[in-house]
Amino acid sequence: MEKNLLEILACPICKGELLYDTNHQELICKFDRLAYPVMDGIPVMLETRARRIGEDEEN
Ligand SMILES: [Zn+2]
pLDDT tens, 2-49? Predict the structure, then answer.
């Protein structure tokens, strides 16, 4: 995924900034503890597709 794409993306729920997890190909919202999948380089910014992050995964 292109780095500059990350700069224009925001969490659809809280409108906050996202972190790109290159290992898991996910966009992380720490505030909502959701991980949005990146499919073939395209971020899927849907809450229904997001994975909830457990407390033990937070870093
Ligand atoms: Zn959020």
Answer: 667 777 899 999 999 999 999 999 999 999 999 999 999 899 999 999
Q: What residues pack around ion ligand 1 (CB closer than 5 A)? A: 11, 13-14, 16, 29, 31-32
For the chain, domains (ranges, CATH) are 3-54 (2.20.25.10)
- CA of 18 from ligand 1 middle (Å) equals 8
Integer Cα distance of 33 and 52 in angstroms: 6
What distance in angstroms lies between residue 17's CA and the mean position of ligand 1's atoms? 7
